[in-house]
Amino acid sequence: MKTRLSNIAALAATLYVCVAAFGAEVAPVLDSKSCDPPKYPKAALMNEETGTVSLLFLVAADGKVVDSKVEKSSGSKSLDKAALTAFSQCKFKPGTKDGKPDQLWAKVEFVWKLD
Fold first, then answer.
1. Phi and psi angles of residue 46, each rounded to the nearest 5 degrees, phi first
2. Is the pLDDT of residue 21 over 70?
3. What is the CA radius of gyration of the chain?
4. Do 69 and 55 meet the contact criterion of CB atoms below 8 Å apart?
5. Do 111 and 40 touch, CB atoms closer than 8 A?
């Protein structure tokens, strides 16, 4: 009887893990080959501005961006805007919810640096 209860408990735990994994959200992923990388704005280049910008994109189930915003600024509005504009043109591998493509937010970080 003990063994049977142990087996049932193990099966229940396995089912719980499977259901939890199936019900999880998977964030969209940027397809970097689908668009051009951001271009350094002339004024930011002349001022030698650098920094890392964190962006959020709301990606539809078809992989297209429907909304976007700056989560954390690079410290330069022109760098933030250039990155947001460039990555908004990209396609994404859609995120999934409960195993099906769904509209979800994706995070993208871009580092602006001078060579």
1. -65, -35
2. no
3. 21
4. yes
5. no
Q: How confident is the model at residue 115 (pLDDT cuts 50, 70, 90)?
A: confident
Q: What is the 3-state secondary structure (H, E, C) of 46-114?
A: HCCCCEEEEEEEEECCCCCEEEEEEEECCCCHHHHHHHHHHHHCCEEECEEECCEEECEEEEEEEEECC
Q: How far apart (Å, rounded) are the C-alpha atoms in residues 60 and 93?
A: 10
pTM for this entry: 0.77
Each residue's pLDDT tens digit, 70-81: 999 999 999 999
Name the DSSP letter for residue 29: E
The 10s digit of each residue's pLDDT in 36-60 is 999 999 999 999 999 999 999 999 9
Which domains does the chain show, CATH number per domain? 25-112 (3.30.2420.10)
52: amino acid identity, one letter: T
Residue 1 DSSP code: -
